[in-house]
Amino acid sequence: MTTASTDHLWRHFTAAGAPQLVIERGEGCYIWDNEGNRYLDALSALYCVNIGYGPWPGITEAAQKQL
Prior knowledge:
Helices cover 27% and strands 18% of the residues. It has helices at 4-7, 44-47, 57-66, and strands at residues 23-27, 30-33, 38-40. The chain has a three-stranded antiparallel β-sheet with strand order 1-2-3, with no helix packed on it.
């Protein structure tokens, strides 16, 4: 039995052996795969990208100063 919740799982919540989604780029809260499909990256803040994707010069400058 499949449901909307099981049909649309993403890694880290996807079963082993499921087809991989190859992410090509990100912008704001969206990501695009290598076939041109756009997705809402609803899991990004859960692990690493809590500010979204994009040109954030202030963050780049702060990181450079810290390095």
